[in-house]
Amino acid sequence: MEIRRYAASDFDGVKTLWEEAFPNDPPWNRAEVAIPAKLAFQPELFFVALDDSAVIGSVMAGYDGHRGWLCSVAVRQACERGGVGTALVREAERALHALGCEKINLQVRATNEAVVQFYRALGYAVEERISLGRRL
After folding, report:
1. Which of 4, 68, 70, 130 could lock onto 96 through a cystine, CB 3.0 to 4.6 A?
2. Separation between Cα atoms, residue 35 and residue 79, nearest integer Å
3. What is the distance between the alpha carbons of residues 76 and 17, in angstroms, rounded to a whole number?
4. Is 63 within 8 Å of 45 (Cβ atoms)?
């Protein structure tokens, strides 16, 4: 497995991965929308995991100078529990820390207990916060 920055040639593989990992995501989270937006802002914080040349995982990170964020952490189902997700999160953490980031946030659907447990195993904790959002 290799982890590296996203390249334009990875688009189809990431799109297929996200369709598998996030089948019910809203239109604004789909690859056609989210990837160009990420490439316009901090593209160096978008990583893919490859097995040979096949995309098997992804993570997008961001840093606003105050907090870092992880999103679109995805692993092909056939590769789950093989260390891909952990390696991607650790690479994003490394890149964020190099920018001076000392706190990372992420959001997980409340019903996705398996993913909550994955992050807990990596040292993340559920914080007593309410997540608010607004579509513009």
Report:
1. 68
2. 22
3. 6
4. yes
- pLDDT of 47-91, one tens digit each? 999 999 999 999 999 999 999 999 999 999 999 999 999 999 999
**CA angle, residues 1, 106, 8, in degrees to nearest 5:** 45
- Cα angle value 109/98/83 (rounded, 5°): 50
Alpha-carbon torsion 80, 24, 17, 36, what sign? negative
Q: Is the pTM of this model over 0.70?
A: yes
- Nearest CA to 48 among 37, 36, 61? 61
Domains of the chain: residue spans and CATH: 2-106 (3.40.630.30)
